[in-house]
Amino acid sequence: MAAPLELSCWGGGWGLPSVHSECLVVMAYAKFSGAPLKVNVIDNTWKGSRGDVPVLTTEDNIVSQPAKILNFLRKQKYNADYELSAKQGADTLAYIALLEEKLLPAVLHTFWVESDNYFTVTKPWFASRIPFPLSLILPGRMSKGALNRILLTRGEPPLYHLREVEAQIYRDAKECLNLLSKRLGTSQFFFGDTPSTLDAYVFGFLAPLYKVRFPKVQLQQHLKQLSNLCRFCDDILSSYFRLSLAGISPTGQDTVDANLQKLTQLVNKESNLIEKMDDNLRQSPQLPPRKLPTLKLTPAEEESDSLQRLSP
Prior knowledge:
Layout: E1 5-10, H1 21-33, E2 37-42, E3 55-57, E4 62-64, H2 66-75, H3 86-113, H4 115-127, H5 138-154, H6 162-184, H7 197-211, H8 218-224, H9 227-240, H10 250-283, H11 299-310
Parallel strand pairs: 1-2
Antiparallel strand pairs: 1-3, 3-4
Helix pairs in contact: 1-2, 1-7, 3-4, 3-5, 3-6, 3-7, 4-5, 4-10, 6-8, 7-9
């Protein structure tokens, strides 16, 4: 009997099995290759680290990062690319590199750096799945990590300022989406009628951008104009994640959005309160510690006190 495969990942919303791109990549590949994954969704009772998800756990191995997890699954005979030619395999690597270089920075910016999206959608959603008080700290760290990752790949000469970086990454992302749309054409998947690794990566990067309801939708609007990419995401969701998403209705989604809005207000209120308390402590005058006066006894009182200690 094969060793059980357990995948720890962020949960879903907005009709998605997960709102986290890298988790979606692994989940989609497992569906395409037939890997029997048991999915453990992270919530506010989760005891492990959240910085390395998705994480694949077996009896003898712990594997993180999508590329390493997919390689591990292939070694276990779960291969979604066995029908690809050598050229198609090379094209897969080239398009994945394109996604990570051109599209991923814009996806990270949309979720974690764009302030309206971060404070109204991203931060409340993730904070609700992290135990207090870490829920007030970790989303901010994840946001800084996303910004650092963007600047690492885009914050070099001649792009010195963040606004210049933002303009460039959205231009690159739109160009990448156009190339993907042209490559997909009218096909069901990128290499014919069978999904492969490239389909898992494209789905993982596009589906959250397509489905999550953001107040700032610059890149989302461009994606929705490319109907074949939207159809591609919808087909994978309905064909491979239908059972896990059963029972989600528009009314139910409206309830989720209403609850998320209430949670947004609560998290922001708590964050503002903590920041105000911290500012008050910093601004309050710091007085040196007071020394208590030392009482001195007269010679007569000292003699009387000594006699009292010696008396039975």
